[in-house]
UniProtKB/TrEMBL annotation:
The protein's name: NTE family protein
TM spans (from-to): none
Keywords: Hydrolase, Lipid degradation, Lipid metabolism
MF terms in GO: hydrolase activity
Motif (DGA/G) on chain: 191-193
The organism's place on the tree of life at top rank: Bacteria
Keyword check for Metal-binding: no
Active site: 45, 191
A Pfam match: Patatin
Protein's organism: Geodermatophilus obscurus
Motif (GXGXXG): 12-17
InterPro entries: Acyl_Trfase/lysoPLipase, NTE, PNPLA_dom
Gene Ontology BP, a term: lipid catabolic process
Length: 283
């Protein structure tokens, strides 16, 4: 087992995705399988927050307790109908052109920011900063995904990239049309989930891989989790919300009111998947 390299992949899924992932991780730990010591942690969007928290030394019980707190003063965000229509148009125009799709949603993000439809970049940095245990990169292998809003280029950020952790996580969480792009080295970046819901292929080459995917499928040319793990030479377990989890998450993944229920659902679901995950992680 000592020479078996492990990877934990944490996918995107908004505020409720953060809560659900923490619930699953806490429930799995209670069932005897602790994923937090993975050799590699890949975080996309919501998963970048959870990944940064875990590798930064946060305690799972404390993280779970925080998700269960009432969302006092927090407002739900949602995508406007105009933004949804532009997403649909980007999908139709892209026809399998994933880079073209990412350029189009990047343009959508910049247009929404210019129109004053998003918070300011500093406001988002403040929000993301409040969620992190530390603003310093951990010594461990944490990889955070983002997309260049102008070129559509996919970028993987880690402690060797020279990019501050706060900016990396904020960029990965910058849902186009809802939150502003984040400035890194003079360029603007948006949500890494615009390439894939989880970017699970970044765990290629590892021996044991567990993927927590609140949103297992993207739209248009976004690669699905199943497509990315198919053919991996590894033991792989993919966990996505069950029926109870989907009900708890609801229709708006950016609604803080659904956070506690999502965390509880993830924790409850862990009991049912613990045997499969244990077999992959420890078997």
């Amino acid at each position: 087992m000592s020479d078996q390299r492990t990877a934990l992949v944490l996918g995107g899924g908004g505020i409720t995705g953060i809560a659900w992932e923490i619930g699953v991780l806490a429930g799995l730990a209670e069932a005897g399988v602790d994923l937090t010591g993975a050799d590699l942690v890949v975080g996309t969007s919501a998963g970048s927050v959870v990944g940064a928290q875990l590798t930064g030394g946060a305690d799972l019980d404390g993280l779970l307790a925080r998700q269960l707190e009432p969302p006092t003063g927090e407002q739900a965000a949602r995508m406007s109908r105009a933004a949804l229509a532009r997403y649909g148009w980007a999908v139709l125009r892209s026809r399998g052109d994933d880079v073209g799709f990412r350029r189009r949603v990047g343009a959508l993000a910049r247009a929404a920011e210019q129109a004053g439809l998003t918070p300011t970049e500093q406001e988002r940095l403040d929000v993301i900063g409040s969620r992190l245990v530390s603003h310093d990169w951990p010594d461990r292998d944490l990889r955070v995904t983002a997309v260049d809003a102008e070129t559509g280029e996919f970028r993987v950020l880690d402690r060797t990239s020279g990019v501050p952790l706060l900016q990396a996580v904020a960029a990965s969480c910058a849902v186009p049309g809802v939150y502003p792009p984040v400035t890194i080295d003079g360029r603007r970046y948006v949500d890494g989930g615009m390439r894939s819901a989880a970017n699970a292929d970044l765990a290629e080459g590892y021996d044991r891989v567990v993927v927590l995917a609140p949103l297992p499928r993207g739209m248009g040319p976004m690669a699905s989790v199943d497509a990315q793990v198919t053919g991996m030479v590894a033991r792989v377990a993919v966990v996505s919300p069950d029926e109870a989890g989907r009900r708890a998450i609801g229709r708006n993944v950016l609604d803080p009111a659904a956070r506690a229920g999502s965390a509880r659902a993830g924790r409850a679901q862990a009991a049912g998947v613990a045997a499969e995950v244990t077999e992959v992680w420890q078997g």
